[in-house]
Amino acid sequence: MHRFNQPSSTQAEQFRQLQSQLRDRWQSVDLFDQDDHDILVVPSVSVDQRELGKIAGFLHYEERLLFSLIRLRNPRTRLIYVTAQPLSPIIIDYYLQLLPGIPFSHARERLLLMTPYDSSRKPLSQKILERPRLMHRIRQALRPKKSYMVCYNSTNLERELSVQLGIPLLAPDPDLLYWGTKSGSRDIFKRSGVPCPDGSESIWTVKDLIEGAAELWERQPSLKRMVIKLNEGFSGEGNALLDLKPILDVAPGQASHEQRVTALSDRLEHLRFQAKSETWAHFSSRIPELGAIVEAFIEGDEKRSPSVQGYITPNGEVKILSTHDQVLGGPDDQIYLGCRFPADEAYRLRLQNLGMRIGKILAKKGAIERYGVDFIAVHQPDNTSQPWDLQAIEINLRKGGTTHPFMTLKYLTNGRYDLSTGLFYSQQGREKYYIATDNLQKERYRGLMPNDLMDIITHHRLHFDSSTRTGSVFHLMGALSEFGKLGLTCIGDSMQQAEEFYNQVVQVLDEETNPNTNSDDSLSYPSLPMGWSISEYCND
């Protein structure tokens, strides 16, 4: 991916020296940036751009870090936010109006927006590096020794950006990225003693993929399905399901290894891809480039997809931030759609313990900042002592889909997460819950511009109430007009209240975009039940 891919030993050493400054600043950063700092936010989604292209409106995922603007509630914080294309002024105004007790003009003066005006399929960090004048303007805006950079994920591009600007990056060293891949995750699980599905090590050829699948089947003759995952797939879009039921005649004990390999090879043309436009020809071409794993598919009558989010300070201390029950969709429930906080009390404390074990291994390897771990939970009704079996499936060594909802909650309420209960409490001591999604998407929403959305929010009073610390916070607003796609976080004092806020937003948007109904007409809408599935509501 361009000349920026290979750092020199000098650059790598400069990067490490810059990051060492974070250890001296950590206490102030942890205390909500109470010292005066300049924060450079580069929300570059620096993953394989062909895989990212499978996501509708992926360019607008740069908006997911706009929760960072809430940091401007500290009157001494200055923030520079860079996006590939200019953000609509009304989106910026929306976030600044969320700041309680801070004059809008005061916050706006401490916010600098910059853009390379480039919508091409390159990571934002690369677009910045390719523009020396933009680099110069950013460098001039930052105060030496009082600045640091945050990003969505850390690669060689972000490392070079950090070194050229002369400011530390609050993110893992790119040399550690392997531990956030599918195969690297499996390695960490084994080292930390965290249970995970049976599967292969890294695979780089189709031949080895077939061999790995055959060996997995032979270890587990009762398998019905396997999952093939590209090492750097994004949001589940790099996954494919291999159904073994049509070839049970070559199952272990029924045929030779060679016959099994032949049958598996023939089945690859019939994989069920989670990305709508994916084909075997394209998918197989990515294996030598990205690597892949093959893994046992966890079966179960009742399954959930919980996750735990942790944080490693520059001093190596591991903290648990949150647990979630994720909502997955797609053909086989492999694609991330949204989440609810907190995770079910039946397993949230176990998630914390497993997440801590994984975080300590990552910390020993030198990782810092945020990490997330995804699990599969299968209900075991006959096991009264442990009714849910937890299997770890992936580490995200970056900000993920649960990051921005939780940080939105934290910054808007200035509350705290309680490890003893796995609950979050506002400053007033009230429990807080939320439902969040990046994928409230319907064809009928296309054409709604951010200004239209603001009119709707204002007219129907859908905004977040800073007095009660409840309501809905919107994001991905830039994707609404072209893709009919919107994100939101609905915060309540109970899960029921959070669900009511979510239902209200969907009901209002459906009413406002129904060509056969006047906006003043009432429209009945089914409530969002417990155990909700966003996919029921996010597809027209």
Largest sheet: 10 strands, antiparallel
CATH C-level class of the largest domain: Alpha Beta
CATH fold node name of the largest domain: D-amino Acid Aminotransferase, Chain A, domain 1
CATH homologous superfamily descriptor of the largest domain? ATP-grasp fold, B domain
Please state the structural category: alpha+beta
Q: Report the portion of residues in β strands.
A: 15-25%
Helix fraction? Answer: 25-40%
Rg (CA only) = 23 Å
Overall average pLDDT = 88
**Total beta strands:** 18
As for the number of domains, it is: 3
- Measured distance between first and last alpha carbons: 37 Å
Quaternary structure type = single chain
Q: Give the overall form.
A: globular
Which stretches are low in confidence, meaning pLDDT under 50 for 5 or more residues running? 28-32, 519-540
Q: What is the annotated CATH architecture of the largest domain?
A: 2-Layer Sandwich
- Number of helices, counting only DSSP H or I runs of 4 residues or more: 17
Molecular structure report:
The protein is 33% helix and 21% strand. It is of the alpha+beta class and 540 residues long. The chain has three domains: 3-171, no CATH class; 198-296, no CATH class; 303-537, D-amino Acid Aminotransferase, Chain A, domain 1 (2-Layer Sandwich). Strands 9, 10, 11, 12, 13, 14, 15, 16, 17 and 18 form a ten-stranded antiparallel sheet that branches. It has a four-stranded parallel sheet with strand order 3-2-1-4. Strands 7-6-5-8 form a four-stranded antiparallel sheet, covered by helices on one side.
